[in-house]
Amino acid sequence: MHFYTYDGTFEGLLTVVFEAFERKAWPTTIEQQHLAQPGMFGENITVVTDEEKAGRVWQGLQKKLSVGALQALYHTYLWEQPGFEQTVFAYIKLVFSSAQSIEGNYAAPCVLQVQQAAKQVHREKHRMEAFVRFEKTADNLYFATISPDFNVLPLIVRHFEKRYVDQRWAIYDTSRHYGAYYDLEQVSLVNLELPPGKRPNIVAAEAKDQEEDIYQQLWQVYFDNVNIPERKNPKLHLRHMPRRYWKYLSEKQPRRLS
Q: Are 43 and 116 found together in one domain?
């Protein structure tokens, strides 16, 4: 039995793959170091991320997989559901042990799981791009918080970088405690240290731009006026805009009393 631990990065997971193949010691479990429970009956292997080893694994995959399959594999890492590391490892092991392409081999559980995970992550990515709403701060920074089901922040950065190229903005994932900051030149991933129990859910009132509340109220009025009561279809509305995303939308917030 072989229990692998790594630092939680995608490069770290690829390094686990490299080490497992080099040792010919297939993992019983793969866990992030801060979550791992040492196995009592087996070998505990702590893997240090190695960019060169990870790169060799990725280059090998590029020779055998399409761009879409590589993307699906990365999306499975961002999926973060229990056992995703084992799914990624099983998929890569099958790739390197097969003479033919495995991309359409849905009889293999890992191939089917990767496709299903990638679809879920892709759907969440598009919903975040559609539903994220920024608030303008007093220092002209546009700030938004998200708490997606999957770790899609790395996937949505490019969308907002292209759309808001002339504005400084930041998007913070309150579930995973990191964010992306665009400074008009490039995007950087940042960590925000907060006191225990403190969450950056909204921009504090004193930090908001003076006109931000007015803009939000105007948007709510616009939404009310373009919404035709006779054409309401609650079921269709919820299908396209699930209730868990309403917290991001100005038009779904309680109306302020004037």
A: yes
